[in-house]
Amino acid sequence: MYLGRLAEVAPTRVLFEAPKHPYTQLLLAALPQLDTRGRDKSPITGEIPSPLDPPSGCTFHPRCPHANERCKAEKPELSAQPDGSQVACHAVQERRIPVLFHPVAPSART
Ligand code: SF4
User: Fold this and answer.
1) How far apart are CA 78 and CA 83, in angstroms?
2) Can you tell me the distance from the alpha carbon of 75 to that of 92, in angstroms, rounded to the nearest whole number?
3) In the chain, domain spans
């Protein structure tokens, strides 16, 4: 959820193993880890916009590394993905960004 809108809905395991929305990917990349070698310490740039005056189109576009002109003008709706998740992102719908795969440790699986 970002600025009051659903960005991605998925079963827990799917969300953590293969996050699709750029905001989800950046949030997971920001999780603290003991081994920080080669990691960007602040992967989400910029400030959170005011929910009273949200950005046009996709509200995440000022901070998204995959934003384009469509993102600035058109609000993305949730769309069903083959793995059962739903994602509100033009780049995911257009297959412009890769799905990152992060295997979840067996002990963390539900
Ligand atoms: S719709 Fe555009 S700005 Fe919004 S998350 Fe997707 S790529 Fe980024």
Assistant:
1) 14
2) 13
3) 1-29+54-104
**C-alpha of residue 33 to centroid of ligand 1, in Å:** 26
As beta bridge partners, residue 80 has 86
Per-residue pLDDT of the chain (110 residues; tens, 9 = 90+): 999 999 999 999 999 999 999 999 999 888 887 777 766 666 788 889 999 999 999 999 999 999 999 999 999 999 999 999 999 999 999 999 887 777 765 555 55
7 lines ligand 1 (CB under 6 A): no
The alpha carbon of 13 and the centre of ligand 1 are apart by a number of angstroms equal to 23
Q: How many other β-carbons are positioned within 10 Å of the β-carbon of residue 34?
A: 4
